[in-house]
Amino acid sequence: MSAAEGPLVVGVDTSTQSTKALVVDASTGQVVASGQAAHTVSSGAGRESDPRQWWDALCEALHQCGDAAHEAAAVSIGGQQHGLVTLDDRGEPVRPALLWNDVRSAPQARRLTEEMGGAKFWAERTGSVPAASFTVTKWAWLAENEPDAVRATKAVRLPHDYLTERLTGQGTTDRGDASGTGWWASGTESYDEEILAHVGLDPAMLPRVVRPGEVAGTVRDSHDLPFSKGTLVAPGTGDNAAAALGLGLRPGTPVLSLGTSGTVYAVSKRRPADPTGTVAGFADAHGDWLPLACTLNCTLAVDRLAALLGLDREAVEPTTGLTLLPYLDGERTPNLPNASGILHGLRHDTTAGQLLQAAYDGAVHALLGALDLVLDEDADRSAPLLLIGGGARGTAWQQTVRRLSGRPVQVPEAKELVALGAAAQAAGLLTGEDPASVARRWNTARGPVLDAVERDEATLARISGVLSDAAPLLERGTEAH
User: Fold this and answer.
1) If DSSP states are collapsed to H, E and C, what string results for 368-395?
2) Contacts from 113-119 at CB under 8 Å and sequence distance 24+?
3) Are 264 and 322 in contact, with CB atoms under 8 Å apart?
4) Alpha-carbon distance 163 to 148, whole Å?
5) 453: exposed, middle or buried (C-beta count within 10 Å: 0-12, 13-18, 19+)?
6) Catalytic residue among 102, 177, 192, 239
7) CB–CB of 375/252 below 8 Å?
8) Residues of the chain with pLDDT > 90: what percent?
């Protein structure tokens, strides 16, 4: 047996590129075991993964945890949002899942917005204006491009739903992840039958939305995972809502997450509805709201630029006249799904390090541009930005965020906040606590605070100017090769 003070719980983060599992002491928050296994994602026009990979990766990650996973009393899955998982009548994938960063459904997003009352209708009805990342647009794309796959589909799930269902045998989701589909009405907190009818999706094909704090099911015995039969399974949630739980966020505290995608969000007591589409009005995992803005190009794009230049990602040099918009995968904020990267201001004396710094500046500019829209009037706009995600420990990322935000920056020491948030949700099943309160008891947000520096208004203005002037090029996009 482990030397834990209290019962053990498992928190899982099934992300775009890997699945991570943590075994956590529910009393102290101490991580007593961990495991991780990779996924593959297709390249080319789309971004797809076989959901069965996620299950195999979960099995591998849990087996790496050893006996501690078998001792766990509860488990919860946090997962990448928006992905469209289509299952046949045997529960097997009809085709690979369309992932959040697959932007082929941009035309369907535009058409759905126009066909059903415009952006204001969608914002008021679902909290968000459909973008190419949203599940409803992916379903519309599939219906147009692969009607045989739609006919074969008997159940529609999100990535975290798929794994939870394989654990319990029951189709369930939660309000946090459901709010990113585009077919969940945020006002009534139920599936929107008018939208579902419009896109030809039977509500019976969707999972039951489990309430915060409710048990989604128990682990069944028809698999080889190292769980005891009857282990409690929490509702799980989307990755951003899980990270918010993992930080124990109180309303108004701003978060900037530097991952494959970049996100800015804060918990709010007010239901968001931004008709511009910049802010997605997501629900959080415990009864409040999680207004969020997301960029498609963050650490992956900057690392790609570093690789092209043959530089370490930290090898930046100050730049004054160079602008790089690193929209390598199209972009969601600003909403430019067909865009590619644009470089302006290149000179004979420009260095590779300056080019790399310009990539950081362009990525952070996009995130900070949405921050004021995410924060409501109750937010403390001088409070430290909580910097999380894979890039948060990078000095170049930290210094760029400080310089362009003019705010202090706090970097939590906890590394796997999505998995920790899922673990806090699992612990809440055992203790009856709100998961965010569990995370605060675990002190997960603890970490150094970097003082504010003067905001670099000149760089912000230059990037905004290039973005405005380049709008026709960015909207036109490039021909696929």
Assistant:
1) HHHHHHHCCCCCCCCCCEEEECCCCCCH
2) 115/198, 116/194, 116/195, 116/198, 119/275, 119/276, 119/277
3) no
4) 25
5) middle
6) 239
7) yes
8) 83
Beta strand extents in 57-199 (DSSP E only) = 74-79, 85-87, 97-98, 155-157, 172-174, 184-185, 190-191
CA distances from 445 to 210, 222, 253 (A): 27, 38, 11
Beta-carbon contacts of 284 under 8 Å, excluding residues fewer than 6 positions away, are: 175, 176, 241, 244, 245, 267, 290
User: What does the block give as tokens for 258?
Assistant: 């530097």
* Token pair listed for 286: 């415990």
CA-based nearest residue to 181, from 192, 165, 194: 192
For β-strands 172-174 and 208-210, DSSP reports them as: parallel
pLDDT at 226 over 90: no
pLDDT digits (tens, 9 = 90+) for 50-62: 999 999 999 999 9
Task: Return the DSSP state at 132.
Answer: T
Binding region for substrate: 81-82
**How far, in Å, CA of 417 to CA of 263, rounded?**
14
The predicted model gives 274-292 an average pLDDT of 93
Q: At what angle do helices 239-247 and 417-431 cross, to 10 degrees?
A: 70
Report the DSSP pairing between strands 18-25 and 8-14.
antiparallel
Amino acid of residue 160: H
Residue partners of 472: CB distance under 8 A and separation at least 6: none
pLDDT greater than 60 at residue 9: yes
Q: How far apart are CA 180 and CA 166, in angstroms?
A: 21
Positive/negative CA dihedral, 293, 299, 300, 303: positive
pTM of the entire structure?
0.87
For the chain, the first-to-last Cα distance in angstroms comes to: 56
Q: What are phi and psi of 273, to 5 degrees?
A: -160, 90
pLDDT band at 378 (very low <50, low <70, confident <90, very high): confident
> 41 near 49, Cβ under 8 Å?
yes
Q: Is the pLDDT of residue 307 over 80?
A: yes
Give yes or no: 177 in active site. no
Which pair of structure tokens corresponds to residue 248? 């124990």
Q: Would you state the pLDDT for residue 382?
A: 79
Sequence letter at residue 275: P
